[in-house]
Amino acid sequence: MVQIADEFGSFDKYIWGFINHKPIVNKFRYPRQVPIKTSKADSISKDLVKRGFRGVGPTVVYSFLQVAGLTNDHLVSCFRFNECVDAGPTKDVSDDSGQNGRFENGNGLGLTSVIDELRLSGE
């Protein structure tokens, strides 16, 4: 973690760099549409493993992206969906199959910044 912070300035900048510093807002209508992993999570996972991390498979990484607010997989019918979407500009990003539209949004929902506030020390 320290090496990533040294190289990129923070873990926050590192992880947001994979998604062009804009959260992905998926507009899923049905639970069956929500993936357990994505190609983006797979590439992040591979990079983390290359950097020496363990236990960071694509499913774990995708779960992190969800909980940290880098991707919004709330169903559009969920009362939390709109709370998790910023009023900023949004653009459509089609997924690999072209069936489910994903939307990028310009805000940072922010739990990754909490990680950067943690101080790693040997004390």
Largest sheet: 4 strands, mixed
Name of the CATH architecture:
Orthogonal Bundle
CATH topology: Endonuclease III, domain 1
Q: What strand order characterises the main sheet?
A: 2-1-4-3
State the CATH superfamily name: Hypothetical protein, domain 2
Could you estimate the helical fraction of the residues in percent?
A: 25-40%
Strand elements, count: 4
Order of helices and strands: HHEHHEEEH
Question: Could you give the topology of this structure?
Answer:
Layout: H1 2-8, H2 11-17, E1 24-26, H3 39-50, H4 58-67, E2 71-72, E3 90-94, E4 101-105, H5 111-117
Parallel strand pairs: 1-2
Antiparallel strand pairs: 1-4, 3-4
Structure commentary:
The structure is a single chain. The chain is 35% helix and 12% strand. With 123 residues, the protein is α+β, with helices and mostly antiparallel strands. It has a single domain (2-114), classed as Endonuclease III, domain 1 (Orthogonal Bundle), CATH 1.10.340. Residues 87-116 have low confidence and may be disordered. The chain has a four-stranded mixed sheet with strand order 2-1-4-3. The protein contains five helices and four strands.
